[in-house]
Design brief:
The chain is α+β, with helices and mostly antiparallel strands and 165 residues long. It contains three helices and five strands.
Length: 165
């Protein structure tokens, strides 16, 4: 995708969004219909946990698939009210950047761009599953990427993030 101009030098860096799509989605309410009664009767607050991850794959020709994984689990006491999982994906053309800049784009910019689509999908599934609306709060992917870089620099492993609310 990098263009070579007349004097043989590469052109300007390019970042092009080719496609956004849902790669996978699932919703489970394993304790329905009893959980609806428990949620109405119970004074206990539901506990919501978000597992967040992303993966970037080089698909050739300066094209990359980035998949943002959002898994939201809502528990009421020891019982699972619902589990919503979305793998929101995008295809990005990235050319003319240094390896470090490209990795930053794949690790921060792309997931940040995909997040609103994944958030909407999760919210729709939860509401259509018969539960009260739930909207995920914005996520600072720049900070998560910087933390991931620090962790890798000291020899840590790369695992999905878990956020509780």
């Amino acid at each position: 995708m990098a263009e070579i101009n007349a004097n043989g030098q590469a052109g300007q860096p390019q970042l092009v969004l080719q496609k956004i799509y849902v790669k996978d989605a699932s919703f489970e309410a394993p304790n329905a219909p009893q959980i609806f009664q428990e949620m109405g009767d119970n004074e206990q607050q539901p506990q919501v946990q978000l597992n967040l991850g992303h993966k970037a794959t080089d698909i050739g020709g300066d094209m990359y698939e980035v998949v943002l994984s959002l898994t939201l689990t809502c528990n009421l006491g020891e019982r699972t009210a619902y589990l919503a999982e979305v793998h929101q994906a995008g295809i990005f053309g990235i050319a003319g950047f240094s390896d470090e800049d490209r990795d930053g784009i794949l690790g921060s910019y792309c997931p940040n761009l995909l997040f609103p689509y994944g958030r909407q999908m999760v919210s729709s599934m939860i509401q259509e599953g018969g539960f009260p609306p739930f909207l995920l709060q914005p996520i600072n992917f720049d900070a998560l990427y910087a933390e991931q870089q620090r962790t890798q620099a000291v020899g840590g492993s790369e695992e999905p993030r878990t956020l509780n609310s």
